Amino acid sequence: MAAAASVPLRVCNQEIVRFDLEIKAAVQDIRDCPGPLSALTELNAAVKEKFQQLRGRLQELEQMAKEQDKESEKQALLQEVENHKKQMLRKTTKESLAESASNITESLMGISRMMSQQVQQSEETVQTLANSSRTILEANEEFKSMSGTIQLGRKLITKYNRRELTDKLLIFLALALFLATVLYILKKRLFPFL
Q1: Which of 10, 98, 147, 160 could be a cystine partner for 30, CB 3.0 to 4.6 Å?
Q2: What CA–CA distance (Å, rounded) separates 153 from 184?
Q3: CA-to-CA distance for 75 and 68, rounded, in angstroms?
Q4: Is 102:40 a contact under the CB 8 Å cutoff?
Q5: CA distances from 127 to 28, 121, 123, 147 (A)
Q6: Are 13 and 61 within 8 A, CB to CB?
Q7: 80 backbone φψ class: left, alpha, beta (φ>0; ψ -120 to 50)
Q8: How far apart are CA 108 and CA 35, in angstroms?
Q9: How many whole angstroms from its chain centre is CA 58?
Q10: Where are the transmembrane segments (predicted)?
Q11: What one-character-per-residue DSSP string does 32-43 give?
């Protein structure tokens, strides 16, 4: 009967050792994982699952220990269960650290995405500013050429105003000469004795 009872104990111990090794390997995989976030999440879920299985086996071992007839075997098994629980508590801390690392990685990836978007927006803003500067320079060149055209037009208008004044003066002088000639002819014809 003792040999039959020891087989489940050995199987339970072997499974506890196997889960312990699997948890250690999974934690190492989390440490070595370069990303992406989905891979870290999967590894973290695997570690949690192994911990649940390990807890189940430890509960089974504790129940088997309580069912032992010999007090020395019972105490030895309960001590072994306590040792496993203490180790599991340290591993749970590692699990929480791994989860924290996963959360931090997720936050950093989010920040990285936001920074990438900001850089892209900055590039678009710089491009818009460059286009605006080019448009302003073109408008400035056009204004300079228009300014030259306006100054030329002003000079032409001033020249035409002077020409108009000269033309009016010449017309006035020609009219005065014509009138003087007409008066002279009339005077000689109508009043030849004067």
Answers
A1: 98
A2: 46
A3: 9
A4: yes
A5: 46, 10, 6, 30
A6: yes
A7: alpha
A8: 12
A9: 48
A10: 169-186
A11: H----HHHHHHH
- Indicate the DSSP class of residue 67: T
Residue among 98, 105, 103 at smallest CA distance from 44:
98
> Which residue shows structure tokens 């000079």?
155
Report how far residue 55's alpha carbon sits from residue 20's, in angstroms, rounded to the nearest whole number. Answer: 11
**pLDDT tens per residue, the chain (194 residues)?**
344 457 777 888 788 888 888 888 887 887 787 777 777 778 778 888 888 888 888 888 788 878 777 887 778 777 877 877 777 677 666 666 666 766 777 777 778 888 889 989 999 999 999 999 999 999 999 988 888 889 989 999 999 999 999 999 999 999 999 999 999 999 888 887 76
Please classify residue 73 by burial: count the beta carbons closer than 10 Å to its beta carbon, then call 0-12 exposed, 13-18 middle and 19+ buried.
middle
Chain length of the chain: 194
Whole-number Å distance between alpha carbons of 64 and 67: 5
> What radius of gyration, in Å, describes the C-alpha atoms of the chain?
54
Locate the DSSP E strands across 58-120. Answer: none
Structure tokens at 88: 């599991």
Amino acid symbol at 142: E
Torsion, CA 58, CA 60, CA 66, CA 70, rounded to 10: -90
